[in-house]
């Protein structure tokens, strides 16, 4: 267990009047324990009480992971395939005195299977969302996390530099995406952070378009959104390219989005809010007459997950803090014509905001 993070979480639990949190396999569990576990038909639950040692329900075949994480033997409730998991849940409920207490659970990860098994052994236990306590901790990155993300960004940027000379007019979006994926892994990525978005021409008007069979055509805008995991942390970058000579309106749209990207980054600083960042980037696009063509938030948090808090979005009044990492990715999307998005990964510093991404924002033309 990461004792420093554990202590900070337990302080959050005390402030939010929770007796503890119950975690599924996933980013929160890994963040606190360092254990690599996965969701399957065999339930695994990590219990972090407001005070005292963590506990875990885990299949016997994986119990060694809990021991290596430093969970005391008497707090490891292992079970076998022959006996199944009901007995382990009953023992954990008794040892942790779950009945009549109030625990946080992960709204995005907790399954009906585990929740019903908990209610069966602790029918008066109350649950609420654990995300506020967990994200208050995870949203501020430490030096090791920043180093990992910087590595992931370096891999992604080397990959795009290698890819650009290999892109040719007539290649399909799928071919470009496949080539980019191969280069990302060859450059040292553990895995891709998500399936690359490669969208050309009219397809670029959909922010989350899937690469298809459309060939790159002279006069297109080409949107590429890509990232990779290194040391468990991702990068998430978008750049838009010109395929041959593009018309004046598309050049104008590109320049507007580039200015909006810069305005969003300039607005990010300690004490500012996600709403402030969103409004700063959006104002540039609205003032240029394209407000109706920017229809998503300006950015999202980045960490163990590609999408996490804090969000750069209207209504988010949570002040930014030094160590917050998020994307700034304004865009303009015109149906039937195409789209432009420019996305950087940034970290809030004492002085304001520093871009972790360095790949040029100048418009590159693919011949």
List the helices and strands in order.
HEHEEHEHEHEHHHEEEEEEHHEEEEEEEE
**Poorly predicted parts:** none
Rg, nearest Å: 23 Å
Strand content: 15-25%
Treating each run of at least 4 consecutive H or I residues as one helix, how many helices? 10
Q: What number of structural domains do the residues give?
A: 2
- Strand line-up in the sheet with most strands: 4-3-2-1-5-6
The biggest beta sheet is recorded as: 6 strands, mixed
Q: In CATH's first tier, which class of the largest domain applies?
A: Alpha Beta
Distance between the termini: 52 Å
CATH architecture annotation name of the largest domain: Alpha-Beta Complex
Give the overall average pLDDT: 97
Q: Which range best describes the helical content: under 10%, 10-25%, 25-40%, 40-55%, 55-70% or over 70%? A: 25-40%
CATH superfamily name of the largest domain?
Answer: Creatinase/methionine aminopeptidase superfamily
Helix- and strand-based class? alpha+beta
Silhouette: elongated
CATH topology of the largest domain: Creatine Amidinohydrolase
The number of strands is 20
Describe this structure in words.
By secondary structure, the protein is of the alpha+beta class. The protein has 2 domains: 3-138, 3-Layer(aba) Sandwich (Creatine Amidinohydrolase, Chain A, domain 1); 143-366, Creatine Amidinohydrolase, CATH 3.90.230.10. It has helices at residues 3-15, 27-33, 63-68, 86-96, 112-121, 131-138, 143-163, 173-186, 248-267, 274-287, and strands spanning 20-23, 45-49, 55-59, 76-79, 102-105, 126-129, 191-192, 197-200, 221-226, 228-230, 233-234, 237-243, 299-301, 308-312, 325-328, 331-334, 338-341, 344-349, 352-355, 365-366. The strands form 6 sheets. It has a 6-stranded mixed sheet with strand order 4-3-2-1-5-6. Strands 8-9-12-20 form a 4-stranded mixed sheet, covered by helices on one side. A 3-stranded antiparallel sheet has the order 7-10-11.
């Amino acid at each position: 267990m990461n004792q420093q993070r554990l202590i900070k979480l337990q302080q959050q639990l005390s402030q939010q009047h929770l007796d503890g949190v119950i975690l599924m396999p996933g980013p929160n569990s890994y963040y606190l324990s360092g254990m690599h576990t996965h969701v399957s038909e065999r339930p695994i639950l990590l219990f972090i009480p407001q005070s005292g040692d963590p506990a875990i329900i885990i299949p016997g075949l994986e119990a060694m992971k809990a021991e290596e994480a430093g969970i005391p033997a008497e707090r490891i409730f292992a079970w076998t395939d022959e006996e199944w998991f009901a007995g382990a849940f009953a023992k954990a409920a008794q040892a942790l005195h779950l009945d009549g207490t109030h625990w946080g659970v992960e709204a995005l990860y907790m399954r009906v299977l585990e929740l019903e098994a908990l209610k069966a052994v602790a029918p008066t236990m109350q649950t609420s969302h654990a995300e506020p306590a967990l994200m208050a901790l995870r949203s501020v990155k430490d030096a090791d996390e920043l180093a990992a993300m910087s590595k992931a960004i370096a891999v992604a940027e080397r990959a795009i530099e290698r890819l650009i000379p290999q892109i040719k007019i007539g290649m399909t979006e799928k071919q470009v995406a496949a080539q980019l994926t191969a280069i990302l892994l060859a450059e040292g990525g553990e895995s891709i952070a998500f399936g690359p978005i490669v969208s050309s021409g009219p397809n670029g008007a959909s922010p989350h378009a899937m690469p298809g069979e459309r060939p790159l055509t002279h006069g297109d805008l080409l949107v590429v959104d890509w990232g990779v995991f290194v040391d468990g942390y991702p990068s998430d970058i978008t750049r838009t390219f010109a395929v041959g000579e593009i018309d004046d309106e598309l050049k104008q749209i590109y320049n507007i989005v580039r200015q909006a990207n810069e305005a969003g980054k300039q607005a990010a600083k300690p004490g500012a809010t996600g709403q402030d960042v969103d409004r700063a980037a959006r104002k540039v696009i609205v003032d240029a007459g394209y407000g109706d063509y920017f229809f998503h938030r300006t950015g999202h948090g980045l960490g163990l997950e590609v999408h996490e808090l804090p969000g750069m979005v209207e209504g988010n009044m949570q002040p930014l803090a030094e160590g917050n990492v998020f994307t700034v990715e304004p865009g303009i999307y015109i149906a039937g014509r195409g789209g432009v998005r420019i996305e950087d990964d940034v970290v809030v510093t004492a002085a304001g905001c520093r871009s972790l991404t360095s790949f040029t924002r100048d418009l590159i033309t693919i011949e």
